[in-house]
Amino acid sequence: MTRTADEPVVPPGDGGLVRVRFDLAYDGTDFSGWARQPERRTVCGVLEDTLSMVLREDVQLTVAGRTDAGVHASGQVAHADLPSTVDFEKFPHRLARALPADVRVFSARVVPPEFDARFSALRRHYEYRVTDAVHGAHPLRRLDTLSWPRKLSLDAINEASALLLGEHDFCAFCKRREGATTIRELQRLEWRRDGDVLTAHVSADAFCHSMVRSLVGALLAVGEGRKPASWPATLLSLHERSSQVTVAPPHGLCLVRVDYPADADLAARSELTRRVRTL
């Protein structure tokens, strides 16, 4: 299939195409991120190759959020336009027999042609896990939890997090991409402690490249006392990426959920998301 994700789906029946939503998860440890890269193992590459093999035709996926190398997902969403003759109820079982153990498709279901995994999304939800235990991460969680060598103040981190909420230009916390805006609405940034493990719950309408890990890196500096709680918010006035912000390692980060509007609002949401935002 050579159509783009923006083209309408062929009406179902007689070998036509339908738009299919995939809900999936993966352990990002051994992947070089989502996007296809030459000579590298990526989530998109593995999934598209497997789908193409099972269906015996080329399949192209559109994803809700392109995760970086080493980042995990427990609630990723993607879509593709596939033949209407496929039994989608049984499709996850067919894929389970062909996919490697570190990526799984939980469901495949037909959605309206206006659905777009990327542009229809209302918000994305991430979690970042870090432990300040003196012994480091639990052996069974070492691949999804960052070990931090110093004690962290939950109160200081949450005080600093609250000052970052709202719509801002987050260019100080992003790797800029040509033609892309860095204006985002940060809707939730809250940390919770369970024993020696702190988990950041981060939600926004969208995220720019490396934004969550950069926010985490800045807040960890506050949590260990190197920076005051007011410091991360002062970076919002910058017009370029801040060299003072350390990007947190990828393995503590996981995409846990993507929210979408009701079917009747999908087209309007996609149109709104495609607009270039300004403050």
UniProtKB/TrEMBL annotation:
Q: Where is the Pseudouridine synthase I TruA alpha/beta domain?
A: 25-119, 160-261
Q: Which reaction does it catalyse?
A: uridine(38/39/40) in tRNA = pseudouridine(38/39/40) in tRNA
Tell me where the transmembrane regions lie: none
Source superkingdom: Bacteria
User: Keyword Isomerase, does the record have it?
Assistant: yes
- Which residues catalyse the reaction? D68
Q: Which UniProt keywords apply?
A: Isomerase, tRNA processing
EC class of this enzyme? Answer: isomerase
Q: Might you give the EC number(s) for this enzyme? A: 5.4.99.12
GO molecular function terms attached to this record: RNA binding; tRNA pseudouridine(38-40) synthase activity
The UniProt annotation places substrate binding at: Y126
Does the keyword Iron-sulfur belong to this entry? no
Pfam families on file: PseudoU_synth_1 (PF01416)
Question: Which GO biological-process labels does this protein carry?
Answer: tRNA pseudouridine synthesis
Q: Which InterPro entries match?
A: PsdUridine_synth_cat_dom_sf, PsdUridine_synth_TruA, PsdUridine_synth_TruA_a/b_dom, PsdUridine_synth_TruA_C, TruA/RsuA/RluB/E/F_N
Gene3D superfamilies given in the database record:
Pseudouridine synthase I, catalytic domain, C-terminal subdomain (3.30.70.660), Pseudouridine synthase I, catalytic domain, N-terminal subdomain (3.30.70.580)
Give the record's subunit note: Homodimer.
The text of the family note is:
Belongs to the tRNA pseudouridine synthase TruA family.
Q: Which NCBIfam families match?
A: hisT_truA
Listed HAMAP family:
TruA
Report the function annotation for this chain: Formation of pseudouridine at positions 38, 39 and 40 in the anticodon stem and loop of transfer RNAs.
In Swiss-Prot or TrEMBL terms, this protein is called tRNA pseudouridine synthase A
